[in-house]
Amino acid sequence: xxxxxxxxxGHTLVRPRPEIAEVWDFLSHQLGIAIADEHRGPFPDxxxxxxxxxxxDGLGSYSSDARARTFWTQYYAHSLRDAARDLPREEIESxxxxxxxxxxxxxxxxxxxxxxxxxxxxxxxxxxxGVVSDWGSDLLPILHAHEITRLMDFVVASAVMGxxxxxxxxxxxxxGRAGVRAEETVYVGDxxxxxxxxxxxxxxxxxxxxxxxxxxxxxxxxxxxLTDLLTVVEAxxxxxxxxx
Length: 244
Ligand SMILES: [Mg+2]
Prior knowledge:
six-stranded parallel β-sheet; alpha/beta; 8 strands; Rossmann fold; 2 domains
């Protein structure tokens, strides 16, 4: 029987509030330069940036507040390299750090519209619920401000517990918090590498949430809205019940 659901946070429960134009305006003011329209495109894929640094940082980019801030500061500096080509690296990193700090404000985040309903439905079924996220210690106030913590039994942020996904330690730590076994637990997230492979390696049942319907076919159940998760939980319960 499935007794618990663990959730990824970013792009599973919450998403950034600012549109890209507002982010570029923020950076333009921080840097004190005009940023041309041709440089105000989407930021590069953060997952690719994360995994390209594995040789330097291992899986430790989110394992403390200082390392999370450094990671994002360098990612933003990398994203700014064309827009602020003539500025010294320190100024670009300083603007990146300011952007990181801006995102620590709960007002810069919003839950997806289906989140509260999905969490309430799961809670009504008696399921234990927790968040397991690669995030700084600012995660808890963000989730609290958006009424998510009232539906959670616990929140594990990687920077607080000192280990980040896809390492199994963070999942095993969360199982201890929940008091459940891995095979009794579903993990849902939007990253195949961090969430699906990471939680599976710790023995949990992974589910990929693909809200934009852009994911390639994967070897795990896929949902497009969080309110579809209980259907997967029911199917898992039935497959376990059908085992001899
Ligand atoms: Mg995520």
